[in-house]
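target protein:
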Amino acid sequence: MASPGQVAGVILAGGKASRMGGADKALLPLAGKPLLAHVIARLATQVSDIVISANGDLSRFASFGLPVIADSLAESAGPLAGLLAGLEWHAKNRPELSYVVSVPTDTPFFPSDLVARLVAAANRRPIVARSESGVHPVVGLWPVEMTQDLRKALNEGVRKVGAWAELQSAIEVAFPQGQVGGKPLDPFFNINRPEELAKAEALLKAS
């Protein structure tokens, strides 16, 4: 069985907040810090290292002090291409690691035991998170040995993380309802709209 020490993290930060005026979602302010900073802090205690997957001007993330990697595909292919970039980076730079865990930059309240619970189910197949609201394939544990298979799938036109997970017969791990600021909350609550950012702000103030 793998241990969290054999797991690296990739934060998928390539998306634009189209429902927030096209701003860079990772840099949106939440409780006085960029949204990305909250995700980094939550993930850092669970993995051996972290890289940020992004596109465009990568220097905008320089202040976070982490490697920032761009997609290796010529066209923008969404979070799945970002996952491939994270797997390829670790296959090259940290070949001793067995798994990469992915989280999106807009999910600041994911569980503090996320990686431990995903690793507990690891058996050389992808593991994805589930909550009461459904499956969250972008939150997953991915064997580094599947890197070439993922590149092949992307070259063949697969674009959605969920579709790739289904093709690989991914295992789902269920997570219970979380709590922030004394109120119940889906552990994979994500911020896509101004009202969701406001809700996250209020919950953090309450906590």
The radius of gyration is 16 Å. The chain has a mean pLDDT of 91. Helices lie at 35-44, 78-93, 114-120, 147-155, 161-167, 194-206. Residues 4-206 form a domain with the Spore Coat Polysaccharide Biosynthesis Protein SpsA; Chain A fold (CATH 3.90.550.10).
